[in-house]
TrEMBL record:
<feature type="domain" description="Dehydrogenase E1 component">
    <location>
        <begin position="2"/>
        <end position="179"/>
    </location>
</feature>
<keyword id="KW-0809">Transit peptide</keyword>
<comment type="similarity">
    <text>Belongs to the alpha-ketoglutarate dehydrogenase family.</text>
</comment>
<dbReference type="GO" id="GO:0004591">
    <property type="term" value="F:oxoglutarate dehydrogenase (succinyl-transferring) activity"/>
</dbReference>
<keyword id="KW-0560">Oxidoreductase</keyword>
<dbReference type="Pfam" id="PF00676">
    <property type="entry name" value="E1_dh"/>
</dbReference>
<dbReference type="InterPro" id="IPR011603">
    <property type="entry name" value="2oxoglutarate_DH_E1"/>
</dbReference>
<protein>
    <submittedName>
        <fullName>OGDHL protein</fullName>
    </submittedName>
</protein>
<keyword id="KW-0786">Thiamine pyrophosphate</keyword>
<dbReference type="GO" id="GO:0045252">
    <property type="term" value="C:oxoglutarate dehydrogenase complex"/>
</dbReference>
<dbReference type="InterPro" id="IPR029061">
    <property type="entry name" value="THDP-binding"/>
</dbReference>
<dbReference type="GO" id="GO:0030976">
    <property type="term" value="F:thiamine pyrophosphate binding"/>
</dbReference>
<dbReference type="GO" id="GO:0005739">
    <property type="term" value="C:mitochondrion"/>
</dbReference>
<dbReference type="InterPro" id="IPR001017">
    <property type="entry name" value="DH_E1"/>
</dbReference>
<dbReference type="GO" id="GO:0006099">
    <property type="term" value="P:tricarboxylic acid cycle"/>
</dbReference>
């Protein structure tokens, strides 16, 4: 499995979650052993110029915080893009670290139907309108090289257009939109004890009172003999022990019992978030 994230250039530079995720990328129990980040860099964020959106020359500069290699590649050159992507995959597989591919390209039309980029970026869009589209540019190169003939190219285009047209025609036959399928799992028996697939079913998760008492006692004891414990902590442990004896629980003890029962089944529990190491909450 290889994790690939696709970003826009403005989002890559401007969304805090990108920077935060980079900082988590090499932590124990968090790492994906390297993610490939593909940035579709059309050099404009909706209507915002880069100089108004970030302080660094490249949108990908946030990746420098973890020393990830960043490949800037001309997206008008498909073979260069393929080469760079192969290098990125090899880097990730060899070093298990993040790597970034910055596809330097442009956006031919507006951000959406309501956006006319000639209002906000007239000079840039005069240049873009003169650009030969990448498909034509590459096709002309392959035909000139003798790699493909004009007829082969036209047949491929016609084949692709046909796939799109057929899908469009079929879509008109769909009279009902099943919103529920998007929002909820349509698989019957998914949450039954005897549901399929077995690995996905949820068997009853209750445990015996005896086991709960055992976990409560362990959670309120000190594992090492003659260990001098902080008086504030010993009060908490004593109160927890009393609750277990009285068959009462508060949130913290209930949580302990849940974690304890999962750990007893040999399942690793990782807590993340504020102050979890010292168990403040």
């Amino acid at each position: 499995v290889m994790s690939i994230l696709l970003h826009g250039d403005a989002a890559f530079a401007g969304q805090g979650v990108v920077y935060e995720t980079f900082h988590l990328s090499d932590l124990p129990s968090y790492t994906t052993n390297g993610t490939i980040h593909v940035v579709v860099n059309n050099q404009i964020g909706f209507t915002t110029d880069p100089r108004m959106a970030r302080s660094s020359p490249y949108p990908t500069d946030v990746a420098r915080v973890v020393n990830a290699p960043i490949f800037h590649v001309n997206a008008d050159d498909p073979e260069a893009v393929m080469y760079v992507c192969s290098v990125a995959a090899e880097w990730r597989n060899t070093f298990n670290k993040d790597v970034v591919v910055d596809l330097v390209c442009y956006r031919r039309r507006g951000h959406n139907e309501m956006d006319e980029p000639m209002f906000t970026q007239p000079l840039m869009y005069k240049q873009i309108h003169k650009q030969v589209p990448v498909l034509k540019k590459y096709a002309d190169k392959l035909i000139a090289d003798g790699t493909v003939t004009l007829q082969e190219f036209e047949e491929e285009i016609a084949k692709y257009d046909r796939i799109c047209e057929e899908a469009y025609t079929r879509s008109k036959d769909n009279k009902i939109l099943h919103i529920k399928h998007w929002l909820d799992s349509p698989w019957p028996g998914f949450f039954n004890g005897d549901g399929e697939p077995k690995s996905m079913s949820c068997p009853p998760t209750g445990i015996s009172e005896e086991l709960l008492t055992h976990i409560g006692n362990v959670a309120s004891s000190v594992p090492v003999e003659d260990f001098k414990i902080h008086s504030g902590l010993s009060r908490i442990l004593k109160a927890r022990s009393e609750m277990t004896k009285s068959r009462l629980v508060d949130w913290a003890l209930a949580e302990y019992m849940a974690f304890g029962s999962v750990l007893k089944e040999g399942i690793h529990v990782r807590l993340s978030g504020q102050d979890v190491e010292r168990g403040t909450f």
